[in-house]
Automatic annotation (TrEMBL):
InterPro entries: DUF6754, FN3_sf, Ig-like_fold
Protein's name according to its UniProt entry: DUF6754 domain-containing protein
Residue ranges of every copy of the DUF6754 domain listed in the record: 445-692
Keyword annotations: Membrane, Transmembrane, Transmembrane helix
Top-level taxon: Bacteria
Listed transmembrane segments: 454-474, 676-698
Tagged with keyword Transmembrane helix: yes
């Protein structure tokens, strides 16, 4: 017995288990990691044991973004993992879940104090409820046994790893009780499958789109991209004058989805405007004139077709462009060939249909679809029938996305009331594809009401109520108080002064177009001033710098004279067009001030750099000047050079202030009280915030 034991010891001394060599990762997929090693042909061992680094939880951090590891050995290598945990809100058909993601970190080795400092960035600064766990694995530290294989094997497949975790591996060759370990493998990062994939109809839209969201793989640095896959509908039939179809190419006990579409096409001849040889070959530039039927009709694409001049009827597809484009560059033309081109605007529209029959005769299934006949324009090509088999696996690529993206809106080729399903595929840098689960089927539809605009509805309702209330209030001959505006109160004085002095009144409606709100407000004031000049028989001069403004201003003045019963006093030449050149207009107005010496100058409207020129010239003539504009940069010049200035909203309130029209006064007071409501809400929210009763005030004023 003793001799046998001595022989065994001598045998182990002479033939120890050989060290495992060239430990490497030979394969990695979404559910496993396979490691391999080299061995000699003649090796007398019992088997191999596979070990994996054991992660140790160092600590849990709340909201902080730094952790210091004091318990380290200088001669050891450490690998850390920072894991973020946060409670996620539920999707429509899912419960609340705990989201756990490995995040990137920065490792700072402090060799003086013998410590490691781990730093990371907060992924979401607005969310303060997350916690962080700091884990550590030692390259030369504790390992856990995860499997054993025979001495004839040279690989092992690990299927117990977790998503988003980093591991070291070791392999030991053992014989009896003696073990010899390999060197640790390089750290291997596991790639998590995209989870919680959810597709939903985009809320508050006009239909024709879905929002797809998912939780991305934790180690996005190992990924190349994400690919969005969508259920594909195949074309199975096309008609033009038929309004029903029977599908006979189906299998029993299979659920099918259909949709019926209409196809429109408008052909637009294109002409070649340039034909040259570039660095990449022949380049032909074509242009065409957009057909009026295409404009504003929601056409999907413009297809470019090309044919050789000798075979003009044999057009072939080249490429596509946007429906509103009128030019295209063709870089695929062959040399020494003459071509002609066509641009074809195309549009597809889904139509409602119904399943008339779904029967089975002699073990053969038939589905009959029908749809209503409708009157179609000449560009109508026909009807087409599309079909998809539920759970068929027939999914096509619809988008390629970045590795840190976790949401996407699909609006291409989506038809309302048609079921669709999606998958997210993570593509690794090695080309491996990791697919998520398929989403439940979803259907898009337009919404009648935009729930994100309820605040706008409430605001409009309050404003309309205030307008109606003050209109009725003003109709009862009750005096509606409007604070005194000095510039408007001085209008009567200014007109009276001009009448006494026998001089004209100069009214400048600004140097802008009729589209400007300040110009419209100025024309309203012009109408009230013209009424007073008509009553006092005071000359009025209105030079304009825009043809349309001239036409409107002329009619405004004429109507004002008619309203006060003085149509005979209206002089058509008192309102005239000068020029649309800015400083030429300023020079002309300055010349009028010096030659005519008006007693009162009204500079009301939208002004630019010419404001100071006219205001200074008018001040030098001794005239009373009333200026008004909503241009912030020009207000200082008017305040300096004019006797009275209408600032900002005072310009808009002027017509109501002067005319005392009940409707205008009601609108003015409604605006004031609406502002008062907004200020009251802000004050209330501020008080609640100080009392730590937080409400999302910004949502009250955010119109989506």
């Amino acid at each position: 017995m003793i001799n046998s034991f001595l022989i065994f010891i001598i045998f182990l001394a002479l033939y120890p288990p050989e060290n495992v060599r060239s430990l490497k990762i030979i394969n990695q997929d979404s559910i496993s990691i396979t490691i391999g090693w080299n061995k000699r042909a003649k090796m007398d061992i019992d088997g191999y044991e596979i070990y994996r680094s054991k992660y140790k939880l160092l600590g849990i951090v709340f909201q902080d973004t730094i952790f210091i590891d004091q318990d380290i050995q200088p001669d050891n290598e450490y690998l850390y993992d920072v894991v973020k945990k946060e409670r996620m809100k539920k999707y429509k058909d899912q419960k609340d879940f705990l989201k756990i993601v490995s995040i990137g970190y920065q490792l700072i080795k402090d060799t003086v104090n013998k410590r490691n400092i781990i730093k990371w960035k907060r992924p979401n600064d607005l969310y303060l409820g997350e916690t962080y766990e700091i884990w550590r694995a030692e390259k030369n530290g504790d390992y856990e046994l995860i499997g054993t294989v025979s001495g004839m094997d040279s690989s092992f497949r690990d299927t117990t790893m977790k998503d988003g975790v980093k591991y070291f591996y070791k392999v030991s060759a053992f014989k009896g009780n003696e073990k010899v370990f390999s060197n640790p493998s390089p750290p291997i990062f596991t790639i998590g499958t995209p989870k919680f994939v959810y597709a939903e109809d985009i809320p508050n839209d006009e239909g024709g789109g879905f929002r797809i969201t998912w939780e991305p793989s934790p180690n996005y640095d190992l990924l190349k991209s994400y690919v969005l896959m969508r259920l594909v509908y195949d074309s199975i039939a096309a008609f033009k004058d038929t309004f029903s179809f029977t599908d006979t190419t189906i299998r029993p006990n299979i659920e099918y989805h259909y949709y019926i579409g209409k196809n429109y096409q408008i052909i637009m001849p294109a002409k070649i405007v340039a034909d040259s040889i570039g660095m990449t070959g022949r380049v032909i530039r074509i242009e065409w004139k957009l057909n009026p039927k295409v404009i504003g009709q929601n056409y999907d694409l413009t297809l470019i077709y090309r044919a050789e001049k000798d075979s003009a009827n044999n057009f072939k597809y080249v490429d596509y462009t946007a429906p509103d484009e009128e030019k295209f560059i063709d870089g695929t033309a062959e040399p020494n060939k003459e071509y002609i081109y066509e641009a074809r605007a195309v549009k597809e529209v889904s139509i409602p249909f119904k399943i008339e029959k779904d029967t089975c005769i002699e073990n053969k299934r038939f589905i009959t679809l029908s749809w209503k006949k409708s009157k179609e324009p000449p560009e109508f090509l026909g009807y087409y029938v599309m079909r998809a088999e539920r759970d068929s696996g027939n999914y096509g690529i619809y988008a390629r996305l970045g590795t840190q993206v976790n949401t996407f809106q699909d609006r291409v080729g989506i038809y309302d009331n048609i079921p669709y399903a999606y998958r997210i595929v993570a593509v690794t840098k090695d080309g491996e594809k990791i697919s998520s689960e398929t989403t439940p089927y979803v259907v898009s539809s337009p919404q009648w009401f935009h729930t994100g605009r309820i605040n706008a509805l409430i605001g409009i309702t309050i404003f309309i109520f205030l307008v109606i209330f003050f209109i009725e209030y003003a109709k009862k001959d009750k005096n509606i108080f409007v604070r005194r505006i000095a510039g408007l109160s001085a209008i009567d004085e200014a007109v009276g002064r001009a009448t006494e002095m026998g001089r004209p009144i100069l009214y400048v409606p600004g140097f802008s177009t009729i589209n400007d709100v300040a110009t419209i407000a100025s024309l309203n004031i012009l109408g009230e001033v013209a009424k007073k000049t008509a009553q006092y028989n005071t000359p009025l001069i209105v030079p304009t710098g825009d043809p349309i403004v001239y036409t409107v201003a002329r009619e405004v003045v004429k109507e004002s004279y008619n309203k006060v019963g003085r149509p005979d006093a209206f002089n058509p030449d008192s309102v005239y067009f000068v020029t649309d050149s800015q400083f030429a207009y300023a020079s002309a107005v300055s010349g009028i001030m010096i030659r005519e010496k008006p007693a009162t100058n009204f500079l009301v409207g939208m002004f630019y750099a010419e404001s100071l020129i006219m205001a200074e010239t008018g001040a030098s003539t001794g005239a009373i000047q009333i200026g008004g504009t909503d241009a912030v940069t020009q207000l200082p010049f008017f305040i300096t050079a004019c006797d009275y200035t209408l600032i900002g909203e005072e310009l808009y309130a002027a017509s109501a202030y002067i005319s005392r029209n009940p409707t205008l006064l009601a609108a003015l007071k409604s605006q004031d009280y609406s502002k008062l409501v907004i200020v009251g809400v802000l004050i209330t929210a501020t008080i609640l915030a100080l009392l730590k009763i937080g409400i999302p005030v910004y949502n009250l004023f955010n119109i989506q």
